[in-house]
Amino acid sequence: MNTRTGRVGVGIIGAGVIAAQYLGQLTTFPDVTVHAIGDLRPEAAKARAEEYGVPHHGGVETVLENPEVEIVVNLTIPAAHHAVSSAILAAGKHVWSEKPLTTTREDAADLLRVAEEKGLRIGCAPDTVLGAGVQTSLRTLASGAIGEARSAVARFRSPGPESWHPNPDFLFQVGAGPLYDIGPYYLTALVMAYGPVTSVSAVGSRASATRTIGSGPRTGETFEVEVPTHVNGLLRFASGATGAVEFSFDDPIGRPHVLELTGSTGTIGLPDPNVFDGPTQVAQRGDKDWSEHKAVGAGSSDSRSNRALPPHDLQVGRGLGVLEMARAIRAGRPHRLTGELADHVLDIMISLDEATHTPESVTVASTVAAPALLDEDFDPHAATL
After folding, report:
1. What pLDDT was estimated at residue 293?
2. CATH number for the domain running over 131-298+339-363
3. Residue 231's beta-bridge partner residues?
C-alpha cells in the first residue's frame, strides 16, 4: 500500500538520446521530481544531470539505491529491458519502461509476475496515445461518430533512422526494427480503439543486409541488419473488426503516416501516433472531404495557448505516461498504460514476427481490456499532489 504523499520521486536509467526527451518534460511537471540519473557510462549520466538540473548521477545503483525515487524510467536498449526492469522491481520501485516492454513473451510474463508479487506497478511507452491527438480521436470513436467498428489501416514508411541517429545499430537488432520500434505507437492506439487482437498473419522482408550510419562521430560506419525492415500484417480483433498494418524502414523518401478507423457509417483519420497532438479527421459516407476536429486535452494547442509558459514548456511530450502513473499511484487507482497492455502489444508484435515465417495465421494468446480515456481537463502542468 502506498503511504507517501506529495510529489512523486522519479529516477532515470539510461542517459542516451531518448533521455533528453523525457527530461525535457519530467523536469517541468510539478507533480513529479527527478532525483537521479544512472547509466553504465557515469559520464553520460553526469552530462544529462547537469543539463537538466538533476541532483544525483552516476551508475545504475545511483538510481536504484536512492530512497526518494519511487518510479524508475527504464530507457535502456530493448535487449536490456528485462534485466534492468527486474533490477528496478527488486529494488522495490515501480517501473516505467520504454517500448517494447521486453523482447520475449517469457520475459514479459516474468516482469508482470514479479510486479504483482511485490505490489509494484509497471507502465510502458508509448505515451503518445495519451496525448490530445489520439485521445480526441478515441473520444470521437466512442461517441458513435462512425457507427460500429469494422476495419483499420495503419501505415508507417520511412528510410529508417540510420541517417540521423548517431548509434542506430540497436534499432536493427532483435527486438527492434520497424515492427518493434514503430509498431507500438500504432498497435497500442488500435488496441485502445478496438480492443484485443486474437490472431495475425504477416509477411516480411529486408532490403539490405547492412546499413550505413549517416550522422555523428560514426558517420560512414556500416552495421548488420538482423531483422525484417519491412512488415505487412493483418489483424483480427476479438470485436470482429480487422486491421491491415505496414511498418517499413525501406522507403527511400518516406510517406505520410496513416492511421484510420472505419466503421459502419464513416471513417476517422487519427493524427500521427508518434506525436502527442494533431487534428482528428472524420468522413461520413457520401461526404466529399474530411471534416476536422481540433485536438482537445493534454498538450493540445488550445491548452498550451492559454498558459504563460516559457517556450520549452509549450509542447507536452514523453513523460506524460510517467506523470499519469504517478498521479494514479497517489490516488490509489489503476494507471492507464499498464504492463498488461504493453504485454499484449508485445504479443501482437511477436506473433506478427512469427507469422512472417509461415503462411498460417498465428494466434495471439494474451488479452487485455482497453484503458479508460484520459480526462479532457488532464493538465500536466497543474500541481495536483
Report:
1. 81
2. 3.30.360.10
3. 204, 247
